[in-house]
Amino acid sequence: MPKPQPPSVSPPAFPTIHDCFTTGRDNHTVVADMDGTLLCGRFFSYSWPLPSLEFLYYFISESAGIRVLIFSTFVGMRVADIESVARAVLPKFYSSDLHQETWRVFSACGSRCVLTANPRVMVEGFLKEYLGVDMVLGTEIGSYKGRATGLVVGPGVLVGTNKAEALRKAFSDAPDIGIGDRKTDFPFMRLCKEAYIVPPKPEAEPVPYNKLPKPIVFHDGRLVQKLTPLAALLTLLWIPIGFVLACLRIAAGSLLPMPLVYYAFWALGIRVTVKGTPPPPPQKSIGRTGNLFVCSHRTLLDPIFLSTALGRPIPAVTYSLSRLSEIISPIKTVRLSRDRTTDANMIKKLLEQGDLAICPEGTTCREPFLLRFSALFAELTDELVPVAMSNKMSMFHGTTARGWKGMDPFYFFMNPSPAYEVTFLNKLPRELTCGSGKSSHDVANYIQRTIAATLSYECTRFTRKDKYKALAGNDGSVVEKPRLAASKVMGC
């Protein structure tokens, strides 16, 4: 006699997201799950280095797995920091992880809601600011005196029937469209007039970077890529090796004569590419001042790689630099006072002594954008040499807005094989300088456009204050210790 089999439980026959039409949806309301639905992957994917959490989440209880993950991630953190850090760090990773088919439907609707098991305080800012979401229903975290307890408060983790109950409380009328990707989404999907399932396809196509709803100009955090469990493990294993390697690379750059640094960097795995023809050193005998190298700003190491490319140390003026960075720097650094008259006199004096490097953006930008160039430099000399700086990192960013800037060079050199490209552009003709009657703003804008065209970047009107207000909540004056208007991005 054959052994009796348990009755099969087949999921409801929801049509797939590909079957949903988008015309005439302007007045419709859409409610979508987040992980695996609105996003191709999981929002918390970088936080799963332990196989035990994966086992708990997938084979025991999705709700229990999320509770453990929330507790281990947020216990003791300031609630305000959870929101601000998430707003600064997560957009880069997840705006480029938008599920193309879900976004096609989601963006066509006039009213948008996300229903997610992720902590609301973590995802709400990102969803509303970058994806135009109107309402976010997520898991609520308990707090005490402004700090997260790590415990989930009622109604609990929003999975299964809890999602359906949250939807009932938020909407008096049934939403027009419900979109989910797993069995625990079915209860809330049944409450919608139409419901569509996102097939579990690992090869799901994300929205292309150039078609994102809002450009990502500023973001923070040290990690270059969103981590998978394997990548997280490899990163942890690499950190002690990378730190030792970074110390060797920094020592080579600081202790060796500058003509040898280029070769030492190559021997230590740092790829330095030099393009264009730099001008010769100034000749004091004929009374000419030094060249002012006007550089785009990617990391605080820009002047050092400029010096490496030239084979001689070039002093640099900076807006802010940690004491540690000043100590280990192989070149002279001069801190600007932010007083226009004082800074102008200082730069003129330095130019009388020889060449000088300046980054008129005033701060770094990781993405393919150039911030507004300060026009002060154009008033001080006509010996202007634009320099397009670009770099590549595979593991760690060498810049930060919220962290300690003293670690910036270490993080850059901790990458397995970082790369820098220094492109010398033609020296500005005299007829394009202030000496021939051009305004300093015209000169600064021309150099910005020239460098942007060389790098295939986009010009913006954003400033240092815009960046630090968005990422750190200050004006950038304090080294150690946010919404952007898309209209500030302009074509070159």
Q: What's this entry about, in short?
A:
InterPro entries: HAD-like_sf (IPR036412), HAD_RAM2/GPAT1-8 (IPR056462), HAD_sf (IPR023214), Plipid/glycerol_acylTrfase (IPR002123). With 492 residues, the chain is of the alpha/beta class. The protein contains 15 helices and 16 strands.
Can you give a write-up of this model?
By secondary structure, this protein is α/β, with parallel strands linked by helices. It folds into two domains: 17-211, HAD superfamily/HAD-like (Rossmann fold, 3-Layer(aba) Sandwich), CATH 3.40.50.1000; 229-472, no CATH class. It is 34% helix and 15% strand. The chain has helices at 51-60, 62-74, 79-95, 100-106, 120-131, 161-170, 186-189, 229-255, 258-267, 302-310, 323-328, 340-353, 408-413, 440-455, 464-471; strands spanning 29-32, 111-119, 135-139, 141-144, 147-152, 177-180, 194-197, 271-275, 292-295, 316-318, 333-335, 356-358, 369-370, 384-392, 419-424, 458-459. The strands form five sheets. A five-stranded parallel beta sheet has the order 3-2-1-6-7, with helices on both faces. Strands 8-15-14-9-12 form a five-stranded mixed beta sheet, with helices on both faces. A two-stranded antiparallel ribbon has the order 4-5. Strand 6 (177-180), helix 7 (186-189) and strand 7 form a beta-alpha-beta unit. 39% of the residues are buried.
Q: SSE layout and pairings?
A:
Elements: E1 29-32, H1 51-60, H2 62-74, H3 79-95, H4 100-106, E2 111-119, H5 120-131, E3 135-139, E4 141-144, E5 147-152, H6 161-170, E6 177-180, H7 186-189, E7 194-197, H8 229-255, H9 258-267, E8 271-275, E9 292-295, H10 302-310, E10 316-318, H11 323-328, E11 333-335, H12 340-353, E12 356-358, E13 369-370, E14 384-392, H13 408-413, E15 419-424, H14 440-455, E16 458-459, H15 464-471
Parallel strand pairs: 1-2, 1-6, 2-3, 6-7, 8-15, 9-12, 9-14, 10-11, 13-16
Antiparallel strand pairs: 4-5, 14-15
